[in-house]
UniProtKB/TrEMBL annotation, chains A, C:
<feature type="binding site">
    <location>
        <position position="190"/>
    </location>
    <ligand>
        <name>FMN</name>
    </ligand>
</feature>
<dbReference type="InterPro" id="IPR013785">
    <property type="entry name" value="Aldolase_TIM"/>
</dbReference>
<keyword id="KW-0963">Cytoplasm</keyword>
<dbReference type="InterPro" id="IPR005720">
    <property type="entry name" value="Dihydroorotate_DH_cat"/>
</dbReference>
<keyword id="KW-0285">Flavoprotein</keyword>
<dbReference type="GO" id="GO:0005737">
    <property type="term" value="C:cytoplasm"/>
</dbReference>
<feature type="binding site">
    <location>
        <position position="216"/>
    </location>
    <ligand>
        <name>FMN</name>
    </ligand>
</feature>
<comment type="function">
    <text>Catalyzes the conversion of dihydroorotate to orotate with NAD(+) as electron acceptor.</text>
</comment>
<keyword id="KW-0288">FMN</keyword>
Automatic annotation (TrEMBL), chains B, D:
<keyword id="KW-0813">Transport</keyword>
<dbReference type="InterPro" id="IPR017938">
    <property type="entry name" value="Riboflavin_synthase-like_b-brl"/>
</dbReference>
<feature type="binding site">
    <location>
        <begin position="74"/>
        <end position="75"/>
    </location>
    <ligand>
        <name>FAD</name>
    </ligand>
</feature>
<feature type="binding site">
    <location>
        <position position="225"/>
    </location>
    <ligand>
        <name>[2Fe-2S] cluster</name>
    </ligand>
</feature>
<feature type="binding site">
    <location>
        <position position="222"/>
    </location>
    <ligand>
        <name>[2Fe-2S] cluster</name>
    </ligand>
</feature>
<dbReference type="InterPro" id="IPR050353">
    <property type="entry name" value="PyrK_electron_transfer"/>
</dbReference>
<dbReference type="InterPro" id="IPR037117">
    <property type="entry name" value="Dihydroorotate_DH_ele_sf"/>
</dbReference>
<keyword id="KW-0411">Iron-sulfur</keyword>
<keyword id="KW-0408">Iron</keyword>
Length: 304, 251, 304, 251
């Protein structure tokens, strides 16, 4: 079955990619399977300088989900381009760089840095990280700020830009429209919902950063709702994510309005999550009378 | 390529208060494991896998033994497993205790606390194959929690310490360090406060410690389990560790 | 152990009450246990006139949660006062009326109607129902609207008013402060998060209303985070809810900033959920070295 | 007071394609149940309970039998239960088929479709204790899905219909109505399209139908399962139903 999807800057052999931050730079999971099987790889966030991130504990388990507050730990964009991208480029897959920052200038710096390499095919502009005190979150919750950073990055970069939206907003459609107007080539949604867990013996937050981002199957209904709402009013493609762990979940995201999907938390439970889903997808689509991934997308067009 | 293993449960026993010993069948893991490495276990119904150290292996029978304390939902569910059921495991994960630099005739101090004792036992067994002298200091909360004392006695000069003095010496493991005499290097695993006390007390000695942290992936990809190092950098407990040189990391 | 809590208008023998909409008017669950055991009962929403609610299907299951879009079906405030309140009043427990509406006038009408009866002890002002097209949701997402409806209801009612907040907002603290300023006696949080599930064979929303409100353990980390954030900045009491199913959960809510709690979805899984939690609470508090419910609240005060 | 029951699994059998018959031990329920009532079953790991009709009871042995089709996660998990395990159930829930107004000598038409057949079987057994004549029309997707035909034949004149004609008559249950002759009243349970066709075809006859809807509480408290009635009001399927007079409700 034909699983191919064409998105701005990306021709994906299948619509499945690991989500940013849940797959490092691919090295660890390359010990489990051949990364060439993936539609694309979305790398861990890149910032201008090396970041050490938040104190530990950084993760906590919740019902059908988890909280994380890694705090964008990464070696800095230059070392990512020097060390990580070339290793990933050896695989027959597309590479998407996740761009983070605490200021407009930093976003622009990081985005332009990726102009240096031919091996990165698109940017995912992370304006939605709930785990850093400065920057990130305002860009993701205020439509005007989102517009500004999107325009600036579009101007600075040679690559298609997928803006990653935060679900922690009253009106997701307003955010999506703002970045579409600002020239985004696509959307990536959703990032994590801000949550907290307490450590009962102390009554204090279990995660050192106090709050963390909620991911996993628990948030899937919220992701589906937001993608569905945005799909009715925005025409750029959507990379959907939030709680995907099966091929049925992928179908649900495609039906809701996504054009490709990312798998995050599920990798931790099952390191083969992405390839297991890719393997199951043809039969799943067939069971529901679809002839290809594009067929799901086309028939949704008719229904909406 | 690394695998996901279905390990068959061979035996499950409560060997001390809240302490379960579980033997699993998986020849590959039983042959590859280095003391200090861990299994990353999937318990149905829980999002994250549980890291549990390997306490012994029997490569002839193809079995791997783990010991765990029932602390929350995951270990409670695991404790209810019956022989014949299977457990989904990644492993052996991480880097265990390096013993290449242990020379013949050395005197080695082993310090284990609570549920940190099992990997130290695995190490003790491995070291006992070398011609070295072993001293083990094992700390437990109280008498009810003591396990593996006899097993250690067969291969090491063994001191048992309980916090409340209900068995063996009273106090913390560090309280008996004055009695154990000189040693060439030490290896330790246990709760963080114990490791802090041990590394402080023995700050001039060569030593290795095994650490814990809450994990996401357990394979080095998510950065959940980092630990600052003395050179202003960091290490990942799941993949660089869990065993580190005591001099290298900041506890 | 002393489980008592005192809140404006309410002296609760324990901090546990069934959440609005998850317990009807108590009749069905009174066939499982004596309702006098409950700290209070929060009744199903009341509107001015009888409402038939949304078409079915109205519920869908999700990972560790569920979606509902009942649409405030109820017999109307007059019949609630005539038929339901007297039956509930026979039990030795407090009664809280959940007040809903599609306009400011309707909220005021319903709230004043409860002045007729001596048997209702407080109002829960539901400005957060995501499942009705008109009214409800704007009041719950716009601080100015929330202020207006709170002031109007406070003026119309003789009873203490607990305003029930929606989690579907960018800034929950702003909403909480707005209603506190408007004179709310307390807060009730959180209502459900708007979500969606698709029916794979048709690719359409499974719930007839398209979206539904997500409840259950899946949302607990979001509830805890919001209550914790609000507790730092607002001093009126909070009735906490969102995914509670065990006594440990109750402790976590109290530590986070709640002064009492409501149990919703858990009743469906276990009709004895509320009393099972009440039974387990003393031992749970003891295990964590607390001497009473008030002790949890007091010691949290010191820590914050 | 109502209770939560732990029902012990006595037997689990696949009796047709994707169709499981499960016998559970619970004397109280076995004695109280009226045909058409259901159990509300908790399957660990799932938020909502699953409503499953009672297909037979044996009040002497204290057992209750249910039949269910494996359609999703909950029924799949339930199908994997082994004898000796227990299932947490509420029930018997709802109002079943009222048979007080069935007079001696009446001819009764029973119409069951797919997994709607079991409660109709329970009803047939109960009616067969009265002095009445029973005609049963049972519809299934195809031959592989047929079950309980022999059991029905013992107590009723039985017509089996399959959609694809692979067994018995071909088509829908309504296609054989012309063959069954006159009757005094009818009782039906099956998928909504079938019930719509049956009630339309038999709109002048006295009849009762058993309905399904997605449920929250299953006990009448949450308003998830309402159904509009002809008098511009509504009924709750879980507690007013699942059985209603065909004239009363709007399908
Ligand atoms: C490398 C390593 C080796 C370990 N070896 C052992 C062992 O041999 N025997 C043993 O009994 N325990 C061991 N632990 C601790 C063990 O992982 C936890 O006790 C266990 O995960 C608790 O799970 P739970 O569901 O019972 O508790 P819960 O508190 O319900 O767990 C909730 C979450 O917190 C995590 N968590 C809780 N406590 C710890 C902890 N101390 N360390 C890391 N994560 C934690 C869980 O993994 C889970 O994600 C080890 C931990 C690490 C990091
Ligand atoms: C009064 C009543 C009696 C029933 N009796 C039987 C019976 O005897 N045998 C049998 O096989 N089935 C029966 N059903 C249908 C049965 O409840 C569903 O097939 C079952 O709940 C599906 O669960 P699942 O987890 O396998 O499917 P999933 O689709 O994964 O279930 C997801 C959710 O949808 C609900 N759901 C899905 N299908 C239905 C449905 N048809 N009706 C109501 N809720 C549904 C589930 O309960 C669950 O909450 C009955 C339904 C009702 C309302
Ligand atoms: C441990 C962890 C780290 C993450 N790091 C990033 C990140 O660096 N950049 C980013 O845009 N999203 C990050 N995310 C969010 C995921 O990419 C994804 O949007 C979210 O987890 C929802 O998908 P899931 O439910 O499949 O995990 C992270 C998520 C997790 C769990
Ligand atoms: C079926 C259902 C109906 C509900 N109806 C109401 C309602 O009428 N008024 C209201 O304020 N909240 C209503 N809620 C929200 C709950 O009171 C509660 O705020 C929410 O479900 C979170 O708690 P939980 O996770 O314990 O269910 C309803 C929730 C459910 C599941
Ligand atoms: S747990 Fe993910 S890097 Fe260690
Ligand atoms: S399922 Fe709750 S009223 Fe019927």
């Amino acid at each position: 079955m034909n699983l191919e999807v064409k998105l701005p800057g990306l021709t994906l052999k299948n619509p499945i990619m690991p989500a940013s931050g849940c797959f490092g730079f691919g090295k660890e999971y390359s010990e489990f399977y051949d990364l060439s099987r993936l539609g694309a790889v979305i790398m861990k966030a890149a910032t201008q300088f090396e970041r050490f991130g938040n104190p530990t504990p950084r993760v906590a388990e919740t019902s059908s989900g988890m909280l994380n507050a890694i705090g964008l730990q990464n070696p800095g964009v230059e070392r990512i381009i020097a060390n990580e991208v070339p290793r990933l480029a050896a695989y027959d897959t597309s590479i998407i760089a996740n761009v983070a920052g605490s200021s407009l200038e930093e976003y622009v710096f990081v985005a332009s840095a990726f102009n240096q390499t031919k091996d990165v095919h698109a940017l995912e502009l992370n304006i939605s990280c709930p785990n850093v005190k400065e920057g990130g979150i305002q860009f993701g919750t205020d439509p005007e700020m989102a517009k500004r950073v999107t325009s600036a990055v579009k101007e600075a970069s040679n690559l298609p830009v997928y803006v990653k939206l935060s679900p922690n907003v009253t009106n997701i459609v307003e955010m999506a429209k703002a970045v579409e107007e600002a020239g985004a080539d696509g959307l990536s949604m959703i990032n994590t919902l801000t949550g907290m867990k307490l450590h009962l013996p102390t009554g204090k937050p279990l995660i050192a950063n106090q709050t963390g981002g909620l991911s996993g199957p628990a948030i899937k209904p919220i992701a589906i709702r937001m993608i569905y709402e945005v799909r009715q009013q925005v025409s750029i493609p959507i990379i959907g994510m939030g709680g995907i762990s099966t091929a049925e979940d992928v179908l649900e995201f495609l039906q809701a309005g996504a054009d490709a999907v990312a798998v995050g938390t599920a990798n931790f439970q099952n390191p083969f999550a992405c390839v297991d889903i890719i393997d199951a997808l043809p039969e799943t689509l067939m069971n529901y009378q679809y002839t290809s991934v594009q067929d799901v997308i086309d028939r949704r067009g008719v229904q909406v | 390529m690394k695998k996901r293993h279905e390990m068959e449960v061979i035996a499950v026993d409560t060997i001390a208060k809240e302490t379960i010993e579980m033997t699993l069948y998986q020849p590959e893991i039983s042959q590859q494991t280095v003391p200090g490495q861990f299994l990353h276990l999937l318990v149905p119904g829980f999002t994250l896998r549980r890291p549990i150290s390997i306490a012994k292996v029997n490569s002839e029978e193809g079995t791997v033994t783990i010991l765990f304390k029932v602390v929350g939902g995951g270990t409670k569910a695991l404790a209810a497993y019956q022989p014949g059921m299977t457990v989904d495991a990644l492993g052996p994960n991480g880097n265990g205790f390096q013993v290449d630099d242990v020379q013949e005739g050395e005197r080695i101090l082993l310090v284990g606390g609570g549920i940190g004792v099992p990997p130290i036992y695995h190490l003790a067994k491995r070291l006992s194959e070398k011609n070295v002298e072993l001293v083990a200091v094992l700390g437990f909360q109280s008498k009810d929690y003591v396990f593996y004392e006899e097993a250690f006695q067969k291969i090491a000069e063994t001191y048992v310490v309980t916090n409340d003095g209900s068995y063996g010496h009273q106090g913390f493991v560090t309280h008996v360090f004055s009695e154990v005499g000189a040693f060439d290097q030490y290896f330790s695993c246990g709760p963080l406060p114990m490791l802090r006390a041990v590394t402080t007390e023995l700050k001039d000695a060569a030593g290795k410690v095994s650490l814990e942290e809450r994990m996401g992936c357990g394979v080095g990809a998510c950065m959940a389990c980092v630990l600052p190092t003395v050179d202003n950098s960091y290490k990942k407990i799941c993949s660089d560790g869990p065993v580190f040189s005591a001099q290298e990391v900041i506890l």
